[in-house]
Amino acid sequence: MLNIVIFGPPGCGKGTQSAMLTEKYNLVHLSTGDVIRKEIKSGSDFGNQLKSIVEKGELVPYELIIKILETSLAKHNDASGFIFDGFPRTIAQAKDLDDILAKDNQSVSMVISLCIHDSKVIERLLNRAKIEGRKDDTEEVIKNRLKIYKEQTCPLIDFYKEQGKYVEIEGDCSIDDIFGQISKIIDNHTITA
Question: Per the confidence metrics, is the pTM higher than 0.70?
Answer without folding.
Answer: yes
